[in-house]
Each structure stands twice: as C-alpha cells, then as structure tokens.
C-alpha cells in the first residue's frame, strides 16, 4: 500500500551487493516514486538484483520525492514516457485511481518486443492495463517509435462493448502484490501473468521479486485480492500486534524499549518456526500452552475478545477493498 511510511536511510554504496548477470539483463524503471516503489527499489539493491544507479523513476511534481530518489543515486526523470523510452521493465507503482491516466500517457511509447510491465496497483486487472495501453497507443504514435507492434492494415479491428479498439499486439503485463518488508529483504509477494506475458516473463518477475523476499506465482489473477488481504496489508496487522504486545509489557512493568524488542523478536521467531518446521500454526500454539499454564489463559483471553475473528475480518475487509478499488478505477476510466 502506497500509504506506508517512508523507508529509512539507504544502505551505503560500499555495502550494495553486485547484481547478478541474470538480474541485470534488463533496465528497471518505476512510474511512481512513493513508499512502495522505494521499498521495492531498496530491496532490489540490498538483494543484489540492481544498483541504485541502474534504476530510474518518474515522480510527478513532488520536489521532496525527487530529492529523496536523487539522494539514492537513482536517475529521476521528468515524465512517465521517459521511463518507457529508457527502461525494459517498467513498474507501475501508483495508486489504482491514478493508474488509468498513467496508462493513457504511456500507451504511445510502448514497444511490445522490449517492454515488460509490472503493476503493483491493488485491484486493477491485467486485462484493463493491457486494453488501456492498446487504446492509448491507437490515439497516436510517439515520435521516432513504431508504436506497440501494430499489425498489418489488413488485420481486422477488435471491438469491445461501446468501444472500438485498434488491433495492436497486446503488451506484456505481470501483476505483483508486494509488501513493505521488501525494504529488509523479507517481502511476502505474489505474482500472476496477464494474457500476453509468457511463463518466462512471470518467472523473471518472480525471481526479481525474490531478491527482496518470498514471491509466489499464483495460478489465478482473482487470488491477488486475497493476497492483498493477507500479505499486502499484513505488515500493518503485524505492526499493530507488536505494538499491542509492547503496550501490554509496559502495563505489566517493562520499559517501553525492552517490551518492543521482545515483542518484535517474538513475532519474528514464531514466524520462522512456522516457515522452517512446516508444522501447522495451531500445533505450534498447542506446544506452548501447558495445561493450566499462563499461556493458555492468555489465549483464552484473546479468544474471548474475538482475536481470531478480528484477524479473519481484517483480511476479508482488505480483499474486498482491493476489489472495490480496481472496479472503481476501471469504471471511472471507462466513463470518460
């Protein structure tokens, strides 16, 4: 979510890991320079997939955002079109309601043989992104560029409900739902390809995202709303839980700094046990809960106050909002 806090100080240039040859096969650009884009960029650098000097970003008109990226030694460009002209892999890292205008601006600069688009905008379908880029391309061809793979004039035109679309080759799009722990190399992301992207394209994106944490290739794009609910929004739930644990520690007499460190490490350690042992979380919980002990009384208190139900409802609310954001974004664009 682009409303996340701004990441902290970048790693020193001396500590940046040299990118692997495979990771450097393509230049990477970000359309949108908010917190999510920055977290991903920092993750790529820390994970060895790129150097800051290999990246480019377009930032709108915010001087503070531009200054922050320049401080990282990232090439800051003045327009979204320049990102497409320079970069092979283009991340659309803007809010869903902004994405339609971005696509309209970029369409005439698409080169389908070169560009791979990665969208991190919650809820906006790859089909909408593909169609929007094709429609924008049909309105004009960028100077010096042949346009997005225009087919021979004898080829029939495609039609959509109430909309005529000039038939151009469909751009390659992969949707990704990342989260802000990209910043520390512990992301939980999922990816799904659009209609024109190949298995190789989505594999490349998954490997790129794995430079900053876990990334799974999900079978159906409809699952990405659920991914948003679990892992996209999940860091906020975890931060809230850590804060609440620390508050409890303070209430019980611990200094704030001690309580916070203990709470954060406890959540980290519990998560590692789930991932590394392969045991069901419920089974691991049962091992901590001795008969008549303190922990089972604490679990009872959580259950009495609806802890489990609240977590489930949080995921469903986030997933529903993700779907809503996509529908509203697409509806507003089609209404123009």
- Named CATH architecture of the largest domain: 3-Layer(aba) Sandwich
CATH topology type of the largest domain? Rossmann fold
Q: What Rg is obtained from the alpha carbons, in whole angstroms?
A: 22 Å
> Averaging pLDDT over every residue, what do you get?
85
Order of helices and strands: EHEHEHEHEHEEEEHEHHHHHH
**Amount of beta strand:** 5-15%
Number of helices: 12
* Relevant CATH superfamily of the largest domain: NAD(P)-binding Rossmann-like Domain
DSSP E strands, number:
10
Number of domains in the coordinates?
2
Which structural class should the secondary elements be placed in? alpha/beta
Strand order of the largest sheet: 3-2-1-4-5-8-9-10
Low-confidence stretches: 1-25, 141-167
Distance between the termini: 26 Å
The description of the largest β-sheet is: 8 strands, mixed
What best-fitting shape do the alpha-carbon axes yield? Answer: elongated
Keywords: Amino-acid biosynthesis, NADP, Oxidoreductase, Proline biosynthesis
Pfam family, one: P5CR_dimer
Protein name: Pyrroline-5-carboxylate reductase
GO molecular function: pyrroline-5-carboxylate reductase activity
How would you describe the overall organization of this protein?
- With 336 residues, the protein is an alpha/beta fold.
- The chain folds into 2 domains: 13-224, 3-Layer(aba) Sandwich (Rossmann fold); 234-305, Orthogonal Bundle (ProC C-terminal domain-like fold), CATH 1.10.3730.
- The protein has helices at 35-46, 63-71, 80-86, 99-106, 126-138, 199-209, 224-232, 234-251, 256-277, 281-288, 294-304, 307-334, and strands at 28-31, 55-58, 75-77, 89-92, 116-119, 158-160, 163-165, 172-177, 187-193, 213-217.
- The strands form 2 sheets. An 8-stranded mixed beta sheet has the order 3-2-1-4-5-8-9-10, with helices on both faces. A two-stranded antiparallel sheet has the order 6-7.
- Helix 4 (99-106) packs across helix 5 (126-138) and helix 8 packs across helix 9.
- The longest helix has 28 residues, at 307-334.
- It is elongated, with a radius of gyration of 22 Å.
């Amino acid at each position: 979510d682009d409303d996340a806090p701004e990441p902290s100080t970048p790693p020193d240039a001396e500590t940046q890991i040299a990118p692997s040859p495979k990771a450097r096969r393509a230049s990477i650009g970000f359309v949108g320079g908010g917190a999510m884009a920055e977290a991903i960029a920092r993750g790529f650098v820390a994970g060895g997939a790129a150097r800051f000097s290999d990246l480019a970003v377009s930032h709108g008109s915010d001087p503070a955002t531009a200054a922050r990226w320049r401080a990282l030694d990232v090439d800051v460009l003045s327009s979204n079109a320049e990102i497409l002209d320079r970069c092979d892999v283009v991340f659309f890292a803007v809010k869903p309601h902004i994405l339609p205008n971005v696509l309209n601006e970029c369409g005439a600069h698409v080169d389908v043989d070169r560009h791979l688009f990665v969208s991190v905008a919650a809820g906006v379908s790859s089909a909408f992104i593909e169609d929007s880029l094709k429609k924008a391309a049909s309105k004009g061809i960028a100077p010096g560029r042949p346009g997005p793979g225009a087919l021979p004039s004898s080829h029939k035109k495609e039609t959509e409900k109430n909309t005529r679309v000039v038939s151009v080759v469909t751009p390659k799009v992969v949707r990704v739902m990342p989260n802000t722990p990209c910043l520390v190399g512990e992301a939980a992301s999922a990816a799904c390809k659009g209609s024109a992207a190949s298995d190789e394209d989505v594999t490349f994106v998954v490997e790129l995202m794995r430079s900053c944490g876990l990334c799974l290739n999900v079978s159906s794009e409809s699952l990405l709303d659920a991914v948003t609910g679990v892992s996209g929004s999940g860091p906020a739930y975890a931060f809230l839980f850590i804060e609440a644990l620390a508050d409890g520690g303070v209430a019980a007499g611990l200094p704030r700094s001690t309580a916070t460190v203990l709470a954060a490490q406890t959540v980290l350690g519990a998560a590692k046990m789930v991932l590394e042992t392969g045991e069901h979380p419920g089974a691991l919980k049962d091992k901590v809960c001795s008969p008549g002990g303190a922990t089972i009384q604490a679990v009872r208190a959580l259950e009495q106050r609806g802890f489990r139900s609240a977590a489930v409802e949080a995921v469903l609310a986030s997933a529903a909002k993700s779907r809503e954001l996509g529908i509203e974004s697409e509806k507003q664009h089609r209404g123009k």
